[in-house]
Design a protein that fits this description.
Mean pLDDT: 82
Strand content: under 5%
Helix content: over 70%
Largest sheet: none
Number of helices: 13
């Protein structure tokens, strides 16, 4: 057997092992959510419960603090933020990649360097600004900052650089302006990158705990991460309920990645071709 084939087989087995190790905690979480309290600490672990107990899942969705409200809040924040982030990132990336102006690359490097600033450093300035603007303790305190993503601009710029410049030049000759070229020519070609950015950005907003914790006070405004934290605090010994709540919180992310995994691969690979 050639050495390259042996290397591929070994590499595949190692990656499979790591994949299994990563998925085991999720399988245990889902399994525990259907068990009775007595089955949680059984050893060896019983992966498939004898009787599937739906009581804990029903409690999560119909209890005192139903996850339905948290889901609606998270969906509202995530979808609006993602829509704005995809549009604004694409517009900024088009300017940095397709429009020639003095100091363009230097400005982009300065803009990119802001990724090195820890987001926690901005909590106090954001709090002061949001309080002044009257959006503190509202969903807009999460939505508006979420529409601006440095990573999104970087990713879309890298993709736009792979689009042949001749396409824009031909459109200019036909009398098209930048906005027409952007919406009619560039964006349709960038569907994989746009889908990838949307999926990644959605995951960021759906799992955003820190910003929601700092800028939201009223429980009616809480998102899924804050709702999950509340559930854990109120049910400190209900391990089955905790796992049911965690399962409810992670389901949208699993669905999003299952639906869009091919776009993630295409978008990341195409965005990494040219720097």
């Amino acid at each position: 057997m050639p050495s390259t084939s042996v290397t591929k087989i070994v590499t595949t087995c190692v990656m499979l092992l790591f994949g299994v190790l990563m998925i085991v905690p999720f399988l245990w979480m889902i399994s525990t959510s259907f068990k009775t309290p007595a089955e949680v600490f059984q050893f060896p672990i019983k992966w498939i419960p004898a009787d599937f107990n739906w009581e804990h899942h029903i409690k999560v969705w119909t209890g005192k603090n139903s996850f339905t409200h948290y889901y609606l809040n998270s969906l509202k924040i995530s979808l609006i933020s993602v829509t704005g982030a995809v549009l604004l990132s694409s517009l900024a990336a088009y300017g940095f990649s397709r429009i020639e102006f003095k100091g363009r690359n230097a400005m982009f490097m300065v803009y990119l360097s802001m990724m090195m600033v820890p987001p926690q450093v901005l909590f106090v300035p954001k709090f002061i600004m949001f309080d002044w603007a009257g959006i503190y303790n509202t969903h807009w305190a999460l939505i508006l900052p979420g529409m601006f993503t440095i990573f999104g601009v970087f990713m879309m710029r890298q993709f736009f650089l792979t689009v042949p410049q001749e396409i824009s030049e031909a459109a200019f000759i036909d009398g098209a302006g930048h906005f027409r070229i952007f919406f009619r020519l560039i964006l349709p070609l960038a569907k994989p990158a746009l889908a990838t950015l949307a999926i990644i950005d959605f995951s960021w907003h759906w799992n955003d705990y820190e910003n929601a914790l700092v800028f939201l006070i009223d429980q009616d405004l809480f998102t899924v991460p804050l709702g999950l934290q509340n559930f854990i605090l109120e049910n400190t010994v209900d391990y089955n309920g905790m796992m049911a709540a965690a399962t409810a919180g992670i389901i949208p992310m699993i669905l999003v990645f299952l639906i869009g995994q091919k776009y993630i691969i295409q978008g990341v690979s195409s965005s990494a071709v040219k720097g």
